[in-house]
Specification:
Its EC number is 3.1.4.58. Hydrolyzes RNA 2',3'-cyclic phosphodiester to an RNA 2'-phosphomonoester. This is RNA 2',3'-cyclic phosphodiesterase. By secondary structure, this protein is of the alpha+beta class. It has three helices and ten strands; from the N terminus they run βαββαβββαββββ. It starts with a strand and ends with a strand. It binds ligand 3AM. Ligand 3AM binds near residues 44, 153 and 160. Ligand 3AM binds near residues 41, 44 and 123.
């Protein structure tokens, strides 16, 4: 199964991000991520066998992140897949530390290694037709995050769907 670790926005922030996704879609076209799927990926694990997934679930349930506040204040794009996202204009040390700590744990469990570059972001659109984010209104939101979620990704005809497998303490 295809797994990744992420932070899930609380409901009020999810709704705000959904409204931004609507604005972005009106401007840029493409496929809007449904509100319930909005997330910040910390570690993409790829295909994981069932037995290893069970180990991961136990490990995650024993994790208790301290949490932090992430300021979301910029739009961004990943050109080739046509992704439009929101994220932070300056690197966030708490998120970077969380990501590094997670990968230490994941590597100890035998899961690959971290990507060379970690750009924390929340994907709002995929396959955007125009990456014209300069026309979008300014963003300034604060995300008070703490719990981690292990998600399973399914690919459907109209895009990915996610199932929550476990959460940290
Ligand atoms: O959180 P976002 O939407 O930016 O694009 C995939 C999604 O990113 C990414 O992992 C997240 C959950 O599916 N993803 C998919 N395949 C990947 C890969 N091979 C990948 N990230 C890195 N390597």
């Amino acid at each position: 199964m295809r797994l990744f670790l992420a932070l899930e926005p609380p409901p009020a922030l999810r709704a705000r991000l959904g409204a931004l996704a609507d604005l972005a879609q009106a401007q840029c076209g493409g496929r809007r991520v449904p509100d319930e799927s909005l997330h910040l990926t910390l570690a993409f694990l790829g295909e994981v066998e069932t037995a290893r997934a069970e180990t991961l679930i136990e490990w995650l349930q024993g994790e208790a992140p301290q949490g932090g506040e992430w300021r979301l204040d910029r739009w961004g794009t990943f050109r080739r897949p046509g992704i439009v996202w929101v994220g932070g204009s300056t690197p966030d040390p708490a998120l970077a530390a969380l990501q590094a700590r997670l990968w230490d744990g994941l590597e100890a469990l035998g899961h690959g290694g971290p990507p060379t570059r970690f750009v924390p972001h929340i994907t709002l659109l995929r396959r955007a037709r125009r990456l014209s984010i300069e026309a979008l209104p300014p963003v300034d939101l604060t995300w008070r995050w703490r719990r981690l979620t292990l998600l399973r990704s399914f690919t459907l005809d109209d895009g990915p769907r996610y199932e929550v497998l476990a959460r940290s303490a």
